[in-house]
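New to this. Explain the following:
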Amino acid sequence: MNTGRRAAAALLAAALLLAGCSSGSGGEDGEEGPGPGPSGRTDDGKAAGLRGITLPSWNTGDYSSPEAAAYLRQIAATGARWVTFTPTWYQDGAADAGMHTTGETASDDSLRHIIGLAHGTGLKVMLKPHVDLAKGGDRAGIRPRDADAWFTAYERFITHYATLAADTGAEQLAVGTELAGTSRDGARWSKVVRAVRARYRGPLTYAANYDEYRTVPFWGDLDVIGIDAYWPLADRPTADAARLRDAWKPIMQELAAFSQRQHRKILFTEAGYVSQRGTTTAPYSWTVSKSGGEDEQAAAYEALLTALDGKPWWAGVCWWMWDDWPDTGETPRRLAYTPHGKPAEEVLRRRWHSAGTD
C-alpha cells in the first residue's frame, strides 16, 4: 500500500480495479527465524511464523508520541507477535535520481524509541522502509532516468536502516516495498542486498505488490518472498466468508507453485481491507465507497486466515494497518483499514489467541 500519499493513492484505486502477518503452525521458536546461511537464505528455508500488524508513521515524531505505547499494547492484545514500522523517504519526481527525508519521515530517534517499546511489549519487529513520491502517485511508477545514480542513493537509504535494524535488534528487514519500476533490475538489486547483508544479519525480504512478484528476479538473494496481498476477491460487495475463501483457491495454487520453484516461503508483508462496502472488490483502495462495511472487512479477514492457515509454503501475514495517529487520518476511522474496535479485531483475537504458541 502506497502509504506516504494516501489521498493520491486513493484516486488511483478506481483505475486499478480493472487491472488484472498469521501462521497457525508457527511456534515461539519458529517465530524467531534462523539467521541467513552461507547461500544468503535461511538454513531451513523458514522465515518468521509471523502474526503481525503494521503501525505506519506519517510524521517525524509519530513513533515517539504519547500514543505509541498504547498502540503497541493494543496490537499485542489481538494476539499479534510482530509489528511492522515504515519510515518513509520521498523523491520529488518519478524519474529523479535520489530520495530524501521530509517532515513526514519518522526520525531515527523515534524509531529507536518505538522499537524499544515494541520489544518491551513482547513484540518482534519488522522494519519496512518505504520510498514514496512527494507530490503523490504510486511508488510503482518510480523509473529513474539515471539508474546508477538512483541505486547508489537507494543503497545509501536502505543501508542506513539496515544499520539501525542491527543496532536496535529488529528481527526482520524488508529491503524494499512495491518498487515495480525498478525491481526487474536483478543485478543492481542483488548489489543492494549484498550491502544490506554486510550490515544486518537477520532475515531479509522484499515486499512486492501482488501483481509484481512474478517479475522480481532476485528472490534467490533473500530469505523469504514478500507479497503485499491485495488481490481482488469478488466482483461485487460480499460478506460471505465461504465465497471469499473459495476466491483464494486459485491464488493459493499459484503461490504454492511459485514458492516451490523459488525454494522459499511466502510472507504476506501486507494484507488489509478497509471497513467499506466493496472492499473485497478492491482491497488496495482507501475509498472504494462511502458506505460502511465492517461485516465485509471481518469476512475478508476470516477468509484469508482460514484459507491460508497451515499451508506449508506460507510464512504468515502482517495486516495493514492499526490506527492512524491523532489528527493525521485522511480516511474516517470507521471506514479506514484499521480493524481496531471492529468485528475484524474480534476475528484476529479469536484466531490468534486460539493458536496460542504452537
Residues 19 and 285 are 13 Å apart (CA to CA).
